[in-house]
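FAQ
Q: What does a multi-component entry look like?
A: The components come first, one per line:
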Amino acid sequence: QSVLTQPPSVSAAPGQKVTISCSGSSSNIGNNYVSWYQHLPGTAPKLLIYDNNKRPSGIPDRFSGSKSGTSATLGITGLQTGDEADYYCGTWDSSLSAVVFGGGTKLTVL
Amino acid sequence: QVQLVESGGGLVKPGGSLRLSCAVSGFTFSDNYMSWIRQAPGKGLEWVSYISSSGSTIYYADSVKGRFTISRDNAKNSLYLQMNSLRGEDTAVYYCARSPPGYRSVFDIWGQGTMVTVSS
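Then the predicted structure of the entire assembly, as tokens:
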């Protein structure tokens, strides 16, 4: 059971928009920055978003992040088949003194 | 270019030990916190441990505390994970990951991972 809660799966058609939620508590998301990762099987995970809404260089602006209270959201617009992957949220948990991840969300681009 | 390369994975019996290594290149290793993160088969990402740039601050996940030891050698640009008293639930792909300067829980560069299988 992950400390952060994500939906197991989401799907949308190419060109459409999708959002992935990440729910936590005051000890993690509520008082710490959230980051998001894209993971294709057999490859190294890739950082998409950090500090709730900042994109590393090279990440297209189709990817966006937001946070409100104890929840965070990853948005992806203009979906492409290459976006099919598992997506994880992560943050620091001040009560656990540990980095925590969500359980992951599998994105299917229909 | 920036690169992290893990090694040392393999098959080990329950109760056994294994030492993972992560060789880094392409950046000033001593500037960055480093972490080990794992993914068990069919499961999500699980953070295992991090070590500060100087090695003076270390944190572990409860699931490995007392069994795993993280360390680094800045002169050799290398990160290590000594794993003792291994259990079946430690079976996973183990990734080393870099945190950007000033961060400890953001991971901007990851290795390709090394597989650890704990089985009799």
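Q: Is there any commentary attached?
A: Sometimes. For this entry: Chain A touches chain B through 28 residues (CB under 8 Å).
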